[in-house]
Write a structure and sequence with these properties.
heterodimer; A: about 400 residues; alpha/beta; seven-stranded mixed β-sheet; 14 helices; about 40% helix; B: about 120 residues; alpha+beta; three-stranded antiparallel β-sheet
Chain lengths: ~400, ~120
């Protein structure tokens, strides 16, 4: 078999769908009007943004005036957390989150700690789950925000968002969820989940990069994030990235319409990969919850080998994947998520994340399985850790 | 991000393996940091006749191990001790800045293996 390029890193980003691009293109050229202008091409841009807002609202079970476009998922997280914190600081200074959040949430919370806020980072169990009871117990009289990610970007574990939302509502604490990995993969209804704020990002579901959105439940006390013009009803000033917003709207509409079929397809690829890797390769563990995980997410740790080496060798075979190894992040520590689920450092270094998407097929899994066992054993042959284990046995 | 030479030494590492009855064996690094390098030396009359390695680590760690074994072969102990991490990195046409610590490991592995040889000799 040749080196056909196989992309298995859809949690990192996805390609823009042709239908999405097609809707976007006119807004770069002939429909270039500023949505704030009153003449016809300005109004046309305004209309396009309104339509996109309606599509996002429909996908989340929200109202259109609760959707605010941002420049990214990270920006949406920053706005949600800093916005709630500073707007409600007279009420309290305590925030609850988890140890496995994306850095967009973790580093924002750490920043707030440096500015006088107190943050509880809830630990997770071996599968990466937070229990609603843990959340309940962490709530203090001065708690102003709970932020728990919907689904983890590395290990795919899906949190009990509805149960946590119920507790937050009971206790009158704002509840934010970073749903960047979940939107387009899991059906979401903000009312059923009792979510007050939700972040999403278009490029995770076949939309363009550089655009996200924050859902803010009506009545939520949160200040403007970027000061300037009247865009996004004065909450997030900046001339709208019209084409990107149009792309986000189209992409979320397609994703929501096809979600069941899409899930079924991804789950088949995921489960087959898990079964085959676990049965064909020794000294391997699956990271993340076996069932409560994103449809397209697989995350393994291969003992005695290091993740970056694994990725380089897969790349030589035309397969693009990801790892929580330190060497892929530029730091010396492996992924905080893998450490939080209790993996020892050396095993956390040997992780491989595969995330399936739209264009993947069973043939891709065939090809992966053709090369992966050999790569793992080749790296193990080279590893002094494996040598020690073999001699010890 | 890696030079062609690094990729070559990563994909086709030279001198992987062990030397039975090696005269010096040095292991450096630790699994916590994600890098362990173990070097085996065969030394006769003060000259390194053969060198082999086993490495747990990233692409740069494997490539620097491979290059380090190439560099020490045929050298006297004194010459081998003078090999710096910079020399290993340069022989690979450079390493990305975040990977320079991998080349430290290569230098340390050479020194540890020679140290082991010297201790062994002292006990003979």
């Amino acid at each position: 078999m040749g080196n056909r390029f196989i992309y298995l890193d859809h949690a990192a980003t996805t390609a823009v769908k042709p239908e999405v691009l097609e809707e976007m293109l006119p807004y770069f050229t002939e429909k270039y009007g500023n949505p704030s202008s009153i003449y016809s091409i300005g109004r046309e841009s305004r209309k396009a943004i309104d339509e996109a807002r309606d599509r996002v609202a429909a996908a989340l079970g929200a109202k259109s005036n609760e959707i605010f476009f941002t420049g990214s998922g990270t920006e949406a997280d920053n706005w949600a957390i800093k916005g709630i914190a500073y707007t409600n600081r007279k009420k309290g200074k305590h925030i609850i989150t988890t140890a496995i959040e994306h850095h967009a949430v973790l580093h924002t919370c750490q920043y707030l700690e440096s500015d006088g806020f107190e943050v509880t980072y809830l630990p997770v169990d071996k599968d990466g789950l937070v229990s609603p009871e843990q959340v309940r117990e962490a709530i203090r009289p001065d708690t102003i925000l709970i932020s728990v990610m919907f689904a983890n970007n590395e290990i795919g574990t899906i949190q009990p968002i509805a149960e946590i939302g119920k507790i937050a509502r009971e206790k009158g604490v704002y509840f934010h969820t970073d749903a960047v990995q979940a939107v387009g993969n899991i059906p979401i209804n903000v009312d059923e989940l009792n979510v007050d704020l939700l972040s999403l990002s278009a490029h995770k579901f076949y939309g363009p990069k550089g655009v996200g959105a924050l859902y803010i439940r009506k009545g939520t006390k949160i200040n403007s994030f970027i000061h300037g013009g009247a865009q996004e009803r004065g909450r997030r000033a900046s001339t709208e990235a019209v084409a990107n917003i149009v792309g986000l709207g189209k992409a979320i509409e397609i994703a929501t319409a096809n979600i069941d079929e899409y899930n079924k397809k991804l789950i088949a690829l995921r489960d087959r990969t898990i079964d085959e890797v676990m049965s064909k390769i020794p000294y391997v563990r699956l990271n993340g919850h076996r069932e409560k995980r994103l449809p397209g997410n697989v995350n393994f740790s291969f003992e005695f080998i290091e993740g970056e080496s694994l990725l380089l060798m897969l790349d030589m075979k035309g397969i693009a994947a990801s790892s929580g190894s330190a060497c892929t992040s530029g730091s010396l520590d492996p992924s905080h998520v893998l450490l939080a689920i209790g993996l020892p450092h050396e095993i956390a270094h040997g992780s491989l994340r595969i995330t399936f998407g739209e264009e993947n097929t069973q043939e891709d899994v065939d090809q992966l399985m053709e090369v992966l066992p050999d790569i793992v054993s080749r790296l193990r042959e080279m590893s002094p850790l494996y040598e020690a284990v073999r001699k010890g046995v | 991000m890696y030079s062609e030479k690094v990729m070559d030494h990563f994909m086709n590492p030279r001198n992987v393996g062990e030397i039975e009855n090696a005269d010096g064996v040095g292991q450096v690094g630790n699994p916590k940091c994600g890098d362990i390098m173990k070097m085996y030396l065969k030394i006769e009359n003060g000259i390194i006749q053969d060198a082999k390695f086993k490495t747990f680590g990233c692409g740069a760690a494997v490539a620097t191990s491979s290059m380090a074994t190439e560099l020490v072969k045929g050298k006297t102990i004194e010459e081998a001790l003078k090999i710096t991490n910079k020399a290993v990195a340069e022989a690979l046409d450079g390493l990305p800045p975040v990977k320079m610590h991998c080349s430290n490991l290569a230098e340390e592995a050479i020194k540890a293996a020679i140290e082991d040889y010297k201790i062994g000799r002292a006990h003979v």
